[in-house]
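Q: What does the predicted 3D structure of FAD binding domain-containing protein look like?
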Amino acid sequence: MTTHAPQAAHTVTLPGSLDEAVAALTAMPAAVPVAGGTDLMAAVNSGLLRPAALVGLGRISEIRGWRYLDGHALLGAGLTHARMGRPDFAALIPALAAAARAAGPPQIRNAGTLGGNIVSAAPTGDALPVLAALEATVIIAGPEGSRRETPVSHLLAGVDMLGPGELVGFVRVPLLHAPQTFLKATGRTGPGRATASVAVVLDPARRGVRCAVGAVAPMPLRPLEAERWVASLIDWDGERGSLDPQVSTAFGEYVAAACIPDPAPAEDGGEPVTLPPAALHLRRTVAALARRALGRALA
């Protein structure tokens, strides 16, 4: 598990079902669930975490696939990024597949899971802005076979929390059958952690645009006013791609200003406070990503 023996867990349990995993966590409150372990093992090897016990989720087949359910896709929390990046999944949820393919090098994509991305709640988690834009929900398994459902955004914001013995079992995603895109910027060439990411989802049935920005805050941000503004300018009954390019540019700037706002004016009436250069660069990056994401969705 790790080359640092003092940090090794004393007990490793390998349940075969979701309810068995919940029972193991209930019986061992100090145990830590682990699927791909891409974030967990980094914390262990850096000395930030020393779990007394581990509950491995790799043998639970029910959470490693997906199925259709009432106009939604029910995704197992154990789906790996590599599996979500395949063409058959991309035909189902294109933006989530794009995020999965951008999640890092092959060794990360082969091990990292959808549920791990949600529970770790790292600001740079690539799947998180897509799930926020899709308004996905999670199905949480609890003791004695209980199940409850809550929006992913509530879990990420801390409005709802996992209780003792609870596990994220599935993610319910609406199947919109409409254009959706995911783009991200990194600090270097090739796969890497996002400095900013944007997901844009069109919802023709509701004549709406949903956008979420990741990596610039502790959780994905939804610029709701920008969404409503650009949705009102789209010709939903005609050629959506005929939107004036200046509108896409204005949308990008609107999104960026909402997510990285100007500082509050100085209370003493002194010199106006401006964003530092790094924040201005990040705002320009978000604006460019949002503009391109909207353009690709409309195209």
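A (community wiki): The structure tokens above were generated from the sequence. The longest strand covers residues 194-203. The two ends are 47 Å apart (CA to CA).
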